[in-house]
Specification:
Length: about 300
């Protein structure tokens, strides 16, 4: 399949099958192509007795790859899931900044039983032009940022990064960051609408929140945070960037107090159902980049 897209002021999320070609037009009207040749995922290490069967304290690390042609040049991207290498730097190739987010073959080895994260096609990528940010504004920290970056050992039991194997077997549909109950969450960017989508007081097992923002290019970002103690602002109230909106990490947290973060992108006019979920690390990567910029 031939897919035609243009870069924009915000991150482009795209899912592709083997054999698909993306024709991408840049802001300077130059055109670049990405053809997906192959992708794979292998179990690099595991403590499980049987793959896909959860085990308390189970740990699995996956080694994933994607073979592609970029402007006719063969490129292989390698991505790790379940250890510190999950917090990777994007590739900068042929004027593109590329995040290799997922291959469907991860789910040959993991269950999708801990939140949505499985790509609808063989490969999921996020792309932006080199020199552009993932969005046109500086991102405020979503929570207090660990000084030396995110550490896998601080992702719940040490495995709950994006798609990290919960109990060694279940792909984690979000990013857990351990911090004390009562930790303040801020809006990383302006929020147009926001509300709980699950609440303990309504019989759910957790307090789960979602906020959304539509950018000038028509794309819509949705962010989620779970394990909230309470909201600091009324639901369905627009929020400016950097506003404290919740106290978190105190409801249904299990062994470690933490917040669960999730991130998705909807193309212009697409519904929430059609959103493409991406690694929340991409947001945190930009937050860390923005802090460096501010220090300089």
């Amino acid at each position: 399949m031939q897919i035609t897209q243009q870069t924009r002021d915000t991150l482009l999320a795209i899912e592709m099958d083997h054999g698909d070609t993306l024709q991408l037009t840049f802001s300077d009207d130059s055109t670049h192509t990405i053809e997906i040749l192959d992708s794979w995922a292998h179990v690099y290490s595991t403590t499980l007795k049987q793959i896909k069967v959860p085990q308390s304290q189970g740990k699995t690390v996956l080694h994933c790859g994607c073979q592609m042609l970029i402007d006719g040049h063969e490129v292989k991207l390698i991505r790790w899931v379940g250890d510190q290498r999950s917090f990777y730097e994007p590739w900068e190739l042929f004027g593109m900044r590329i995040w290799f987010d997922a291959t469907v073959h991860i789910f040959d080895h993991l269950n999708e039983a801990h939140g949505p994260c499985k790509p609808r096609k063989d490969v999921r990528l996020a792309i932006q032009e080199v020199g552009k940010r993932i969005c046109p504004v500086l991102l405020h920290p979503w929570c207090p940022l660990p000084k030396d970056g995110l550490k896998i050992e601080d992702c719940y039991q040490g495995m709950d990064c994006w798609m990290g194997p919960y109990f060694g077997a279940d792909a984690h549909g979000g990013l857990d960051i351990n911090h004390p109950a009562g930790t303040v969450l801020w809006t990383p960017f302006a929020i147009d609408d926001q509300a709980y989508y699950n609440q303990v007081c309504k019989g759910d097992n957790n307090n789960r929140w979602q906020g959304s923002h539509t950018w000038a290019d028509g794309s819509r970002w949705l962010i989620r945070a779970c394990h909230l103690i309470k909201l600091l602002t009324p639901e369905h109230t627009p929020l400016e960037a950097g506003m404290p909106y919740a106290l978190s990490a105190g409801v249904h947290v299990g062994d470690f107090e933490h917040t669960h973060f999730a991130f998705g992108i909807c193309e212009p006019d697409a519904s929430d159902h059609d959103q493409i979920f991406l690694d929340p690390w991409i947001l945190f990567w930009q937050m860390y980049q923005d802090r460096k910029q501010m220090i300089v």
